[in-house]
Each structure stands twice: as structure tokens, then as C-alpha cells.
Amino acid sequence: MKTYALTYWFTWAFLVLAAALTGVASLKDAFFGGLFASLASALLSKAYRRAGPRYAPLLGATAGILWVVLMFYRIRWFGRPESFESAQWTLGVDISVHAAGFAGAALLTALRERHEFGRSLVGGFALAAAMTAVPYGVIAWIDHRVAGPVEIVLLVSAEVAPDEGPVRRAGAIRAEFRPEEVAFLKERMLVVDGPGGTEIVDEAGRRYWPLWRRRLVYPGNPGGPLRQAFVILPPGLAAETWELPLPQEPDGCGLVVLGPQKAVRYSGGPVSQAVRAELTLDVRMIDGSLAYQGLQAEVFRRSPVGDLYAPVRTLGLAAAFLAAESDAKPAGKERPRRPSFGPEPVAK
User: Which one has a higher pLDDT value, 116 or 64?
Assistant: First the structure.
């Protein structure tokens, strides 16, 4: 009974500690989830003793992996969709932590038959810590390069007078440029201060303002370096889905100019082969002018060891202003008409 208890409490304590250090789960989930996982580990105590110190860690690691896979399919079949999505995001770290905890408990149990408690405890903890640190270090490095946040800033041109800026919707959050973003854009475009804030001017003299800014965060890695993509949408494009190249560096910036038939022009250094984004835009006619609606973005990630990440997407989000003539006019203000040199129309 004492051996069962040692195996159980060692496994439980290590799973809780590893969850707290790696952030794979909340302490509440680790506390209660570890209770059942530790029970499965304790039931193998007799098998650990028979296997001996040489093979017990292998048996324990295999049991830990099988336990995680079993819980994964339990959540998939009987859990909520958001719980299954979270399990997908943390599957790799879950496997690493449970395999290490079970293997450490197995070595502790096997050594307990030959050595005193202190030496067996140190041996079990050292093995579990090493089995966690090495895979988690690799996963953390991959997450740093691949799974950091991605911010997409969409810039569009609006039909406004030269001395005016676009009229924002009531309650809309104004997308402003940070100083480092302005410095990046100045290296590639003409950037000026206008009546509508900071303006980007292209080679044709069209002015662009940030219509929409969205940060897409991989839930397993909310912090870390931020990739940025500034996307310029010229007027006259139909509704399409563009594949956006993103910078290779985790904290890099890229400038993407969209074109017809899904064409893109990229500027900003090497392009990442592991992270890409898709932008879907619904362009509609409103009072004879184009208006951008239904903005959606989705980020896809591929790690150096395969597809380990679920895509991160946005829902349809409203823009700060519409690039339509009817929506750009201030309320109660009539836009001046062009002078007419022909005969006055006869009222019917």
C-alpha cells in the first residue's frame, strides 16, 4: 500500500508542478485531472517493480502517452467543442508532461525496492524533469518561431475630398499607426499626415487609411514576438480570398499589396515557409459605390515537425469606415457638384 501511495502522490505532484511551469493547463484543471491520471499510474506499481529500473521508465512513459491519447478522444467524443479545440492546441505538451510524470513515478517505484526513499525520489524526479525540459524546450523554440501572434492591418482608399478624411462609424475603434510602424512604411511608401490621420500614398496618388486591425493569437502562446502584415487593398477589386505571405522573423513586418485574381506583391524581407495567412473580403455595391464588408482572416501554421497547430481565424468583423461614397459623406453636408457647362436639365 505504501508503494501505491508513493507512486500516486509523486505522479500527481509532478503533473501539477509541470502544468504550473509550462502553462499547459490551469492549476484547477491540473489539480483534478492529475488525480485521475495519478490513479492510473498507481495501478501499474506492481508492473513497475517487476520491470525493474531498466524497463520501468519505458513502461511508465508508454502508459502516460496512452493516457493522454485516451483523454484526447474522450474530449473529442463527449466534450465541448471549445474543450476539444484547447486539447488540440496543447496535445504535444500534454504528452511530454504525462510521459515524464509516469516515467519518473515508475523509476521511483522500481528503485524503492533496492534503495532508500531519498535516492529513489531524487532519481525519479531527475528523470521526470529531464524528460519534460528537453521536449518542452524544443516545443517552446518551435512556438517562438511559428506560433507567435500575427497582426493584420488592412489599408483601403476612400472617396473623400483632398482636404477631408474618411468618416468613422459611430463607436468604431480608430486604428492608429505606432511610431515603429510608420518608420517601416516610410521605407516603402509615401507617408504623410493628413486630415484623417496618418495617410499612405501609393504611386498613383491614392490615399490609404487603416480600415481594420486584427491580432490573431494562438491560444497556446499568447505572448511572444509579433508578426505584422500591412495589407493595401486598391479600389476596384472584386470579392476574393488572398493568400498573404508573412515575414520569416517572428517579430518581422511585411507590406502586401493585393491585386486582381488573387495576385499579391510583398515587401519586407524573407517570407516565412511555416506561417501564412488568408484574407477574405466581401465587396458589395452600395448606392453605386464599392463598400468593404465581411472582413475575415485566418492564420495557418506548420511546425518543423509537421502540422501541430489548428488554424486561428476571425469572425466577420465590422470595419471602422466604409470605402463607399455614400458612407463617406458627413451627415447634413452636401458634396459640391462639378460645374456643368451644358443646358440645364428640364424638370419632368
Answer: 64
Q: Residue 326: what pLDDT?
A: 36
Segments making up each domain of the chain, as ranges: 2-146, 150-328
Residue 168 cell numbers, joined: 468613422
C-alpha cell read off for 302 = 506548420
Radius of gyration of the chain (CA): 29
pLDDT in tens, 138-184: 878 888 888 889 999 988 887 777 777 776 666 566 677 888 999 99
CA distances from 119 to 105, 113, 115, 172, 243 (A): 13, 11, 6, 63, 57
What stretches of 157-270 adopt beta strand conformation (E)? 190-194, 197-201, 207-216, 227-233, 240-247, 253-258, 264-267
State in Å, rounded, how far the first CA of the chain is from the last one. 102
Nearest to 34 by CA among 62, 71, 1: 71
Rounded (5°) CA angle 92-8-119: 95
